[in-house]
Amino acid sequence: MLSASSVLNNISAVLTGTDQDYSMTHSVFSYSNLVHAVSGAVGSVVAITVFYPLDTVRTRLQIDDHRKAKHTHQICADIIKEEGIMGLYLGWFPVVTALCCSNFVYFYTYNSLKTKFIQGKKSSALTDLSLAFISGVVNVLTTTPLWVANTRLKLQGAKLHTKVYEEAERKYDGILDCLMKIVKQEGFWSLWNGTAPSILLAANPAIHFMVYESLKRYFQRIFNTSELSGLLYFVIGAIAKSIATSSTYPLQVIQSRLRAGLSKAEKAQSMIQNILYLVKQQGIGALYKGMEAKLLQTVLTAALMFLAYEKIAAFTFRLMGMQIPIAKP
């Protein structure tokens, strides 16, 4: 079995140039990695488009301090009443753009690492966790500006119940305009607002992939097949994301608030200070505000995304005449 420590040592060897057998072209630039990356990106676009209203509800509850916490369907009804049906789809395009780029980077990095360090060997849950966390950090560092712009654009035109936030509203004309205005008005590094909790939140997809890969390998062995049913992929994805989201939700609240950039007091504080400040101002419940909507959105979206990802990847590999390996017992 390949241990997490040996994987980390191998990565260190690659980075320091001591791995003489390392082939960058073979491990990174391959059709297989590209298929996984494109499949993950397309799957995420399909999934977020279907469940986007749930993401809108989650964002409003996390950021709008004076909006009362209600059940998801009640918040949806309130938004429709205040802003019309399209209020549920504010900022859809920047979200899809950011998510597509983010998942492409994540799946490409994750599968590149798997190709180099796991292919042909038996993996373990700890190895999956290590590779997924590294992939998450790479993803955060490269795509955070897109997510900062995405959060700002999602709130543009929204009827916020926190008046001081409404007064601070800024006008942006698309993703590029938003990025340029943030740099001009708030400084270049404001594009990476929320990076600290985001790096810690790399644990979310890491836990997600660890649970998902473990369950997937288990059922592949049980049914002696490399390709499972769509329903089973959906259920496995839902279970894995439920565990990951429940364990990291308070950090996601802080991340969303920092990305929105509406509170100057919060932007000037560290992550721990932000958590304590929010608890002091609104109570411990504020760290879990919007969790119902988040669980519904993220679990259903992740389940549908993995179903689409696995089926698209399997179909593409069949067209290319490539075999999908069955997990080793």
TrEMBL record:
It is a multi-pass membrane protein. Solcar repeats lie at residues 31-116, 123-218, 228-315. This is Peroxisomal membrane protein PMP34. InterPro entries: MCP (IPR002067), MCP_dom_sf (IPR023395), MCP_transmembrane (IPR018108), Mito/Peroxisomal_Carrier (IPR052217). Keywords: Membrane, Peroxisome, Repeat, Transmembrane, Transmembrane helix, Transport. The keyword Transport applies. It comes from Pomacea canaliculata. One of its GO terms (cellular component) is peroxisomal membrane. The chain crosses the membrane at residues 34-54, 89-109, 129-149, 189-211, 231-251. One of its GO terms (molecular function) is NAD transmembrane transporter activity. It comes from the Eukaryota. Belongs to the mitochondrial carrier (TC 2.A.29) family. It is found in: Peroxisome membrane.
